[in-house]
Each structure stands twice: as C-alpha cells, then as structure tokens.
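P.,

For your records, the input lines for the assembly:
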Amino acid sequence: MVRPKRTVVKANEVNTRSKSAVSPAGVSKRKPATARKLTSNDTSNSAVVQKPTATSKKPIFDHWLMKSEPDSRYEKGVEMKFSIDDLIKEPKSTAHWDGVRNYEARNLLRDQMKLNQQAFFYHSNCKQPGIVGVMKIVKEGYPDHTQFNKSDPHYDASSLLDKPKWYMVDVKYVRKTKRLISLEELKKLHTEHKKSLPKGVLHDLSLFTRSRLSVQPLTKEQFDFILKLEHQDK
DNA sequence: GCCAACGTTGGC
DNA sequence: GCCAACGTTGGC
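Structure tokens returned:
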C-alpha cells in the first residue's frame, strides 16, 4: 500500500466539515490521509460527486488524483515514502491505498471510486510536486486494515472491527506520464482558467480549491485536459 | 525550516 | 454548538 503523507491522527468521527484525506495506495506501507467524518454523517457524503440529471449540470467526478510522498519520511518509526516506482515494484504493480485518515477522502474511497476508473499518481511534499503517472482502481472501497494494527502509524483505537471507520481501494499502475506535469504548471493554468471568460475546465481544480485533500475528485474533462499536457513541451 | 490554510480537539 | 487553541499538510 501506499502511504499517504499524513499521519494518522485518528480522526474521530466527529467533524463533519472536514475534508481532507491523503493516502495512497498501499502496497507496502501506507500512510494516512484524512477524510471526513463518519459515523455520524455517513449519509452526508461529501458532495463531491453527484448524479447526472437532465436538468442539472452538476459535474460528475469519476476520475481521481491521489497524493503520495516519494521521498523518505518517518512517522512513528515507519517509513512513509511511496513513489510511483514503488507502486510499479509491488506484485502486479498493485497496492492498497491505505492510511487515509480524513473523512471526506474516506467517503470518496468508500463510496465513489469505482472499478476501472482512472487516477493520477501525484508526488507531494517533494522537490518537484506534480503528476507522474496514471493508475486505475482495481478494487473498490473496503476497510483499511491498518486502522486495527497497533503497530501501524495509522492505527486508530477508536475504530471498531465490526464498524470500521477507514476505507481504502486498490490501485494498479497503468503508466507514467511522458513527463512530470508539475504543480507549478497546473497552478498557472488554474489561474488562467479562472480569469478567462468562459472559465476554463481547471478553474475549480480541487488541487487548488481543496489543496489538502489527499484523494481528490476530477471530472473527465479535467482529467483529459491535464493528461494532454504531457504532449506539450512545457 | 517557515508558515498559510485548514482540520481537530475540547472547554464552556 | 461555538470557538480558541492546537495540529497537520504540503508548497515554498
């Protein structure tokens, strides 16, 4: 599994409004992320995803961006790094994205991420933050076992076996992007897209509007737009 | 290493 | 349920 960069912190299920999450898939290790609340608000999901209706224009989020730290960092004595190369090295290049400890992210992992959907692998908290590859969801949300492991940095004593608080998905490596699509570049585009008259597709990219979320939702339009950048020289 | 943004905790 | 204090994320 991967590890997110953040730590565990057990979030309790209390905050309703929170939203962040992090965590990568994990293969070998995992890291946490945050998500939103749970128990109490299981029903209220984050509002991130909506269903299409003939009349509404709510965006459909069926693509993802998942953050992981490629550089070595220790949390409770456990190394948290998980780069795209680490994912590639996993058996079948597949990992669980464990360690997310944020309710909003948890809700995405548990409820919204579906089989075969694509996700960007994003390197964070490193020299060159940005998108480095593409992966796909190969197993939908299921309980993150690390919450029950006392020796795991993301152990959560408040989570019950029969009512797990935290979830993860499995992701499989698809390919690296032809080049790093940097945070800097995305930020520039985001700024332009906010200013342009009809706003551009990246005007509300969650990487900037919800920067601390470790698992972020994207529309197909956003995903495709960003992926096309790999063909530009930059 | 700093620090802004924002999530979490816990008293009241 | 509010909100101040505190903790974390993650870019810079």
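Two observations worth noting. The mean pLDDT of chain A is 82. Residues 183-195 of chain A form the longest helix (13 residues).

Regards
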